[in-house]
Amino acid sequence: MTDALIYIVEDDPTVSRLIRATLDKYAFRSECFDSGAALLRRLAQQTPAVCLLDLGLPDMDGLDLLQQIRNRHAFGLLILTGRGDTYDRVMGLELGADDYMVKPFEPRELIARVRSILRRYQPAPAIAAGKPRLAEFAGWRFDTATHELSAPDGSTDTLSLAEATLLRTLLERPNQILSREQLLDGRNLDALDRSIDLRVSRLRKRLEENPQHARLIKTVYGAGYLFCAEVSWR
Fold first, then answer.
1. Which residues of 170-184 are buried (b: 16+ CB within 10 A; e: fewer)?
2. How many separate helices (H) and strands (E) can be counted in the chain?
3. d(CA 198, CA 195)
4. Domain harbouring 156, CATH code
5. What's the half-sphere exposure (Cβ side, CA atoms, 13 Å) at 81?
6. Could you list the residue range(s) of the whole structural domain that residue 218 is in?
7. CA–CA distance from 189 to each of 102, 182, 197 (Å)?
8. Which terminus of the chain has a smaller tally of CB atoms within 10 A, N or C?
């Protein structure tokens, strides 16, 4: 992880230098951009492992930029911004950001969150001989190697990395209550962090006939989530 390339999209040069110095201290490579247009030009040449994105950019709205990125690329995205509004946090996560931090930030927490995102985007290890990779449940089939999800009617779709990681975690421990922290790599969550809830919501839309009355992924209020199905692996 330590040699990973990190893009910093920040129009305040003081903040940009602080972030870059923090990443340098932990041996990450980084490049800085002071506008959305500059980032998009660079993405046409090379993509990073993780992008740290400020929402208050001089040439475009950060949420619009985030949507453009997610429509074209699959790398880690951490929103790092002075906007503390709940709407921006929720919209950022809905549009595909992996995490959200509000300035001012604690450097060690920034590094911890970058590392957490990098772990999620590590390529899956080769499937060992005899190790199950296909999960079947309630008429569905999920291939953990390709992230392909097959519905009972035979239609197929490919999950995003975040959705596939969440589904695999649920499938590996069916009929057990899993806390939000367990579903997010053990990271402690503050009271306003709804990122895992938004991911569960997106997964429900794929699996449930009526996401408002979920039958497979149930909410256990005050405790977490429960995957209610028998799962067979092969």
1. bbeeeeeebebebbb
2. 7, 13
3. 5
4. 1.10.10.10
5. 23
6. 134-233
7. 14, 10, 12
8. C
DSSP per-residue letters across 162-216: HHHHHHHHHHHSTTSEE-TTGGGTT----TT--HHHHHHHHHHHHH-SSGGG-SS
Indicate whether 129 belongs to any domain: no
Q: Which residue has the tokens 């800085």?
A: 32
Number of domains in the chain: 2
pLDDT at residue 189 in the model: 47
CB distance 146 to 135 below 8 Å: no
- Count CB neighbours of 137 within 10 A: 20
Q: Which residue, among 209, 214, 208, has the nearest Cα to 226 in the 3D structure?
A: 214
The secondary structure element, H or E, covering residue 62 is helix 62-72
pTM of the model: 0.62
H or E, element range at 51: strand 50-53
Angular region, 201: left φ>0, alpha ψ -120 to 50, beta rest:
alpha
**Does one domain contain both 140 and 89?**
no
Contact assessment for residue 160 and residue 181, using Cβ atoms and an 8 Å cutoff: no
Q: Give CA–CA dist 178/97, Å, rounded.
A: 22
Q: What is the chain's length?
A: 234
* Residue 127 placed within a domain: no
In a domain, 186, yes or no: yes
pLDDT per position as a tens digit, 183-220: 875 454 444 456 778 888 889 999 988 888 899 999 98
